[in-house]
C-alpha cells in the first residue's frame, strides 16, 4: 500500500468550542480520489457522454478501499501497534443490570482493559448532547450503569479492549452467544426513555383547491402534541389554558422543525387551537359520511416492519488519543464527516481527564443507505480510544454486531381512513395516524414519524386531511435515518387502500387514481405547492396503456388454466417522494488557469450514488470541458469565511432577519449526504458556479475573440447575445460562430482580467435564497446564492488583485439577501419525483410463495445527468422494495436482532431470482424542457413496487394484505379462510 497522505493534506475544518478540527482523507486511493491532481478523462467522451463512473476502474480493480480496510500502521503519524475493542451488550430489558462475568474466558483471554459506565462517568466521557439535535438524540449513556435497566435490547454494558488481535478475536468468538457473561438483578419492568414527539397536520381547503385554505400547516401551524402514556395528547380546541407539548426533536428532513416547547406554546397556541377545531370538523364529516349512502368510508389498519439496511460495510471506526499533543485522531466511516467532526468537538470540549485541543479526522469512502447518517458509532469509537493506554482502539462490527447495534428502518403502525364520493370516485378526506416505533434511542425518530404523516397522501389531492404521527420510545433496537425515511411505510399502505377503494367502487384502479391525482398548482396536505408540473396524470396514462395492464384479465385466465396450483396477478401503484431536507446547502469552488485547466473543489461526498461523476458532467455540459483537477468531500472553503448557528430548521423569522444582516452568516454551511439531495440540491450550486462563469467570463471572452480581426471580426455582421452562446463540439460556439476551444477562452479571459474563478454557497428551505452582489467589472447581480467570492484573471488591474485577500479570492459581501421564510419549515416538502410500477407475479397456492415474473417501472427523473446512474438506482431500488414487500423482517423485541443472534442466515434478502432481474423494464418521461432540473430519485424507485406487489397478490388470490411483509405463511393462512 502506497501512503500518500501527509500533514499538508489536512485542511482546517473549523474551530468548535475552542477545539481546532482538521480534516483529511485516507491514504492510497482515497488521496488520489479526492486530492486527485491531473487525471485521466477516459471515463468521459469529448461530447460529455459517460462511458463509466469516474471511480469505476478503481472500484472494479480493488483499488478503491473503505474506511474498514485501514489499521493504525497504515496511517502516517499513528502508532504501529493497534488495539481492538468490542462490547458486551444487554439482552434483558426488564431486569436491572448487575455485573459482567468473564470467567468463561479463562486466564489467557482476559481483556487488557475493561471499561464500564462508572469509568466513563469518572473521566467525563459523555454522550454528545447538542441543542440543535435535540434531547438525548444519541441516547443517555454510552455504557449502561450498574443497577439500571437497559432502555433497549443490545445496549452496551461494557467495553473490552485487547492490545493484540489474536486474543481479541478468540475472546470475541467465545463470548458471542454467551448469555451468562452479563448478569442481572431485580425485575424492574421496561424502562424506555421519554417518547420522542407527536405532530399533527390538518388542512381544510378554501373555496377551491388553489384558493387560500381555511386552515393549513403552512399558512397557520403544525399542531404539536404531548403524551398520556404512549397516547398522544393534543391542544383542546376551546381551552383557555396553556398547552405545552412534549417535543424534543429539533433537526430533521422535512415536516417542520420543533423549537423550544415553551416558545411553541406562546407563539402557536392560538393557531393550534384553530387546527384542532378544523380536525373536529373533519371527524364530524367522516361520521356523517358513514351514514350517507352516497359516500364510501374505508378504515384499515396497516403495519410496515422493521428491516436492516444491510449495507455492504458494517459500522467501524478507529481512534487514537495522543496526550502529548492533546490531539484526537479519528478514522470514521460516515456519510457526513463534517457532522461527525462537529459533534465530536462538542463531545470532548469539557473533558479534564483527556483534554483535547485539536481533532484530526480522517474520512473514507463508505456506503450506508442512510444508516451511517448521524450514527452513534463514531462517538463510541472516540470514547473507546481514551482507554487504549496510548494505542489506537479500533471498533468494527461483524454482521452479528451490526444487526444488534446498527440502526434499523422504523416499523410503523398505521390507522387510515379514506372518504370518497361513490358517484364520482373523488377523494374527500384522508385521516391517518402513524405510530412510529423509535426504539430505545431517539435519533431521527420524531422526524421520520413526521415525514410519514406528511407523505401519506402519495399522489392525490385531498380537500380535507388530518394526518398525525407519534414517535414512541420502546425497547426495540434504535431506528434512524434509512432509505425511505418514513415514506415507504406510509405510502405503501395508502396505495394498498386506494386499490381497495377502486374495487369497492367497481372502477379501474388506474382510472380512480387519475381522477384524484394532484394537478399543477394544487397543494399538498401541508398547504405547500410542489415545484413544477407533477406530471402524475401523464404517468398514469402511460401505465394504463401498458400491455401488462390492458391484458391482465386475459393473461390471468390463460395462466391459471395452464398452471394448476398457481394463480396469476398484476398490480399497480404510483407514488411521488420528496427529495431534500428543507435545509439544503451546497458549497464549491470552480476556477481555471490561463492554459484552460479547470479545478473544482466540491463539498459533495461520494456514498455510492455516483455524485462525483455527475457533478463533473454538469460542469462539462455548461463549460464544454470537464474539470482536470477535482477535490470532493471538501469541508474547508477559506474563500467563503462563513458562520452559522446550526439550527436552520428551528430558527424563527425574527432571528433569521437579524442574523442575515451579517454578510458572513448563512443558515447552514455544509450539507448532509442524505435525502437524495446530491443531483438537484447539491448540484444546484455546481450549476450556479458554472453558469456564472459561462455568462460573465466565457461570453465576454468569446465575444472578444469573435470580434477581433479586420472589420470587427466575424461577429460584426450579425447580432448575438449571451443567450445565443452554446457548448458545441470543439468548445464554445453558437450564433453561427466558429467554435472556440476552451483553452483559447481561458487564455483570453486571463488576458482581459475577467473573473476566472468563483466560489459559491447556496441554501434552500424548499425555496432558494437569493442575494445581490456588486462585482467589480461585472456589475450588480441578483443570484441564487447567499455567498460569493471571485478570483480575477492574470491581466486584472492591481487594484482588483489586491482585493483577493480571502483565501486568494475577493469575497463579495452581499448587499441584500432574501432567505426563504421560516414559515416554510411547515411546508413539509415541495420537491418531488414521481414513480410508478407494474408487477406481474404468480402465487403458489400450496406453499404461499410469490414468484415475481416481471415488473415495469415508470419514472420522471427530469433532465438526467448520467443515465447509467439513474438505471442503477432504479434497478437497485426495485430490488430493495421487493425485499420489503415479501421477505425482509426483523422482530422488534426479545427475539429480534437485539439479542445478538441474527445474521444473514436468519435474515432473508432478495436475490436476483427473486426480483425478475432479466425481465425487468423501465421507461423515463422525457423532460418537459431542456431547462428542466434533474430530480432526486435514489429512494423513490423502491416504494411503488411494494404496494404494486401487494395489489398483484390481491389480483391473484383475492385476499388483501395490509401487514408487511406479505410472507408465504400469511398467504397460506388467507387461502384457508
From TrEMBL:
Coiled coil: none
InterPro entries with a match to the protein in the record: Ald_Oxase/Xan_DH_a/b_sf, Ald_Oxase/xanthine_DH-like, AldOxase/xan_DH_MoCoBD1, AldOxase/xan_DH_MoCoBD2, AldOxase/xan_DH_Mopterin-bd_sf, TAT_signal
Ranges for domain Aldehyde oxidase/xanthine dehydrogenase second molybdopterin binding: 543-638, 813-915
Pfam families on file: MoCoBD_1, MoCoBD_2
Domain spans labelled Aldehyde oxidase/xanthine dehydrogenase first molybdopterin binding: 279-517
Name under which the protein is recorded: Xanthine dehydrogenase family protein molybdopterin-binding subunit
Taxon lineage: Bacteria, Pseudomonadati, Pseudomonadota, Betaproteobacteria, Burkholderiales
Amino acid at each position: 500500500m502506497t501512503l500518500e497522505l501527509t500533514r499538508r493534506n489536512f485542511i482546517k475544518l473549523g474551530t468548535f468550542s475552542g477545539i481546532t478540527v482538521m480534516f483529511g482523507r485516507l491514504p492510497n486511493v482515497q488521496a488520489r480520489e479526492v486530492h486527485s491532481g491531473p487525471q485521466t478523462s477516459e471515463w468521459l467522451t469529448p461530447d460529455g457522454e459517460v462511458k463509466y463512473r469516474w471511480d469505476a476502474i478503481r472500484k472494479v480493480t480493488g483499488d478503491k478501499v473503505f474506511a474498514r480496510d485501514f489499521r493504525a500502521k497504515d496511517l502516517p503519524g499513528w502508532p504501529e501497534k493497534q488495539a481492538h475493542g468490542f462490547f458486551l451488550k444487554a439482552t434483558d430489558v426488564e431486569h436491572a443490570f448487575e455485573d459482567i462475568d468473564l470467567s468463561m474466558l479463562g486466564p489467557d483471554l482476559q481483556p487488557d482493559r475493561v471499561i464500564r459506565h462508572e469509568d466513563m462517568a469518572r473521566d467525563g466521557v459523555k454522550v454528545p448532547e447538542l441543542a440543535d439535535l435535540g434531547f438525548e438524540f444519541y441516547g443517555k449513556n454510552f455504557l449502561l450503569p450498574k443497577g439500571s435497566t437497559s432502555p433497549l435490547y443490545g445496549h452496551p454494558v461494557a467495553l473490552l479492549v485487547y492490545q493484540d488481535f489474536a486474543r481479541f478475536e478468540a475472546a470475541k468468538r467465545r463470548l458471542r452467544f454467551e448469555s451468562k457473561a452479563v448478569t442481572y438483578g431485580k425485575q424492574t419492568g421496561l424502562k424506555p426513555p421519554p417518547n420522542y414527539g407527536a405532530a399533527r397536520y390538518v388542512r381544510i381547503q378554501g373555496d377551491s383547491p388553489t384558493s387560500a385554505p381555511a386552515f393549513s400547516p403552512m399558512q397557520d401551524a403544525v399542531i404539536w402534541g404531548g403524551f398520556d402514556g404512549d397516547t398522544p395528547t393534543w391542544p383542546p380546541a376551546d381551552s383557555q389554558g396553556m398547552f405545552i407539548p412534549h417535543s424534543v426533536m429539533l433537526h430533521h428532513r422535512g415536516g417542520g422543525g420543533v423549537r423550544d416547547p415553551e416558545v411553541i406554546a406562546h407563539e402557536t397556541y392560538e393557531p393550534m387551537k384553530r387546527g384542532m377545531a378544523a380536525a373536529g370538523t373533519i371527524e364530524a364529516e367522516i361520521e356523517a359520511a358513514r351514514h350517507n349512502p352516497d359516500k364510501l368510508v374505508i378504515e384499515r389498519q396497516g403495519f410496515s416492519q422493521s428491516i436492516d439496511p444491510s449495507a455492504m460495510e458494517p459500522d467501524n471506526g478507529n481512534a487514537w488519543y495522543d496526550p502529548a499533543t492533546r490531539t484526537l485522531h479519528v478514522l470514521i466511516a460516515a456519510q457526513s464527516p463534517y457532522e461527525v467532526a462537529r459533534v465530536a468537538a462538542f463531545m470532548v470540549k469539557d473533558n479534564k481527564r483527556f483534554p483535547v485541543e485539536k481533532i484530526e479526522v480522517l474520512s473514507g469512502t463508505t456506503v450506508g443507505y442512510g444508516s451511517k447518517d448521524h450514527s452513534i458509532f463514531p462517538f463510541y469509537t472516540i470514547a473507546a480510544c481514551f482507554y487504549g493506554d496510548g494505542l489506537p482502539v479500533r471498533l468494527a462490527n461483524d454482521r452479528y454486531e451490526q444487526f444488534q447495534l446498527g440502526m434499523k428502518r422504523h416499523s410503523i403502525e398505521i390507522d387510515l381512513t379514506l372518504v370518497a364520493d361513490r358517484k364520482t370516485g373523488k377523494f374527500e378526506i384522508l385521516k391517518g395516524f402513524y405510530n412510529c416505533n423509535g426504539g430505545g434511542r431517539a435519533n431521527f425518530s420524531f422526524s421520520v414519524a413526521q415525514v410519514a404523516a406528511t407523505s401519506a397522501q402519495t399522489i392525490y389531492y385531498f380537500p380535507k386531511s388530518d394526518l398525525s404521527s407519534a414517535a414512541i420510545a420502546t425497547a426495540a433496537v434504535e431506528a434512524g435515518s434509512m432509505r425511505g425515511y418514513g415514506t415507504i411505510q406510509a405510502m405503501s399502505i395508502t396505495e394498498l387502500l386506494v386499490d381497495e377503494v377502486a374495487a369497492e367502487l367497481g372502477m379501474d384502479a388506474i382510472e380512480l387514481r387519475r381522477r384524484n391525482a394532484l394537478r399543477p398548482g394544487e397543494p399538498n396536505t401541508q398547504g405547500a405547492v410542489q415545484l413544477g408540473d407533477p406530471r402524475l396524470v401523464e404517468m398514469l396514462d402511460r401505465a394504463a396503456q401498458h400491455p401488462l395492464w390492458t391484458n391482465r384479465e386475459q393473461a390471468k385466465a390463460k395462466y391459471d388454466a395452464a398452471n394448476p396450483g398457481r394463480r396469476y396477478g398484476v398490480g399497480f401503484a404510483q407514488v411521488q417522494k420528496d427529495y431534500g431536507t428543507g435545509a439544503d446547502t451546497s458549497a464549491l469552488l470552480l476556477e481555471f488557469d490561463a492554459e484552460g485547466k479547470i479545478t473544482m473543489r466540491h463539498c459533495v461526498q461520494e456514498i455510492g450514488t455516483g455524485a462525483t461523476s455527475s457533478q463533473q458532467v454538469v460542469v462539462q455540459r455548461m463549460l464544454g470541458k470537464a474539470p482536470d483537477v477535482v477535490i470532493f468531500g471538501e469541508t474547508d472553503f477559506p474563500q467563503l469565511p462563513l458562520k452559522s448557528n446550526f439550527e436552520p430548521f428551528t430558527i424563527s423569522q425574527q432571528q433569521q432577519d437579524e442574523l442575515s444582516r451579517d454578510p458572513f452568516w448563512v443558515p447552514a454551511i455544509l450539507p448532509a449526504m442524505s435525502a437524495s439531495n446530491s443531483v438537484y440540491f447539491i448540484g444546484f450550486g455546481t450549476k450556479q458556479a458554472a453558469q456564472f462563469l459561462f455568462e460573465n467570463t466565457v461570453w465576454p471572452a468569446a465575444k472578444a475573440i469573435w470580434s477581433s480581426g479586420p472589420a470587427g471580426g466575424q461577429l460584426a455582421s450579425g447580432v448575438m447575445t449571451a443567450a445565443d452562446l452554446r457548448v458545441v463540439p470543439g468548445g464554445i460556439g453558437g450564433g453561427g460562430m466558429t467554435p472556440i476551444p476552451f483553452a483559447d477562452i481561458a487564455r483570453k479571459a486571463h488576458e482581459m482580467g475577467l473573473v476566472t474563478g468563483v466560489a459559491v454557497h447556496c441554501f434552500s428551505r424548499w425555496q432558494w435564497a437569493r442575494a445581490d452582489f456588486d462585482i467589480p467589472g461585472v456589475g450588480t447581480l441578483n443570484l441564487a446564492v447567499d455567498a460569493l467570492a471571485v478570483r480575477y484573471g492574470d491581466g486584472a488591474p492591481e487594484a482588483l488583485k489586491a482585493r483577493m485577500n480571502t483565501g486568494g479570492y475577493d469575497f463579495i459581501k452581499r448587499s441584500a439577501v432574501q432567505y426563504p421564510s421560516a414559515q416554510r419549515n411547515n411546508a413539509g416538502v415541495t420537491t418531488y419525483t414521481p414513480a410508478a410500477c407494474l408487477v406481474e407475479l404468480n402465487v403458489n397456492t400450496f406453499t404461499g410463495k410469490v414468484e415475481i415474473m416481471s415488473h415495469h417501472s415508470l419514472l420522471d427523473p427530469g433532465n438526467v445527468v448520467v443515465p447509467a446512474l439513474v438505471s442503477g438506482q432504479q434497478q437497485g431500488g426495485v430490488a430493495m422494495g421487493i425485499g420489503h414487500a415479501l421477505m425482509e423482517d426483523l422482530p422488534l423485541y426479545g427475539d429480534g436482532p437485539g439479542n445478538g443472534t441474527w445474521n444473514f442466515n436468519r435474515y432473508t434478502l432478495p436475490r436476483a431470482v427473486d426480483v425478475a432481474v432479466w425481465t425487468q423494464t423501465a421507461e423515463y418521461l422525457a423532460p418537459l424542457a431542456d431547462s428542466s432540473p434533474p430530480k432526486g430519485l435514489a429512494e423513490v424507485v423502491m416504494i411503488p413496487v411494494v404496494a404494486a406487489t401487494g395489489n398483484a397478490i390481491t389480483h391473484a388470490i383475492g385476499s388483501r394484505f395490509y401487514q408487511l411483509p406479505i410472507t408465504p405463511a400469511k398467504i397460506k393462512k388467507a387461502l384457508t379462510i
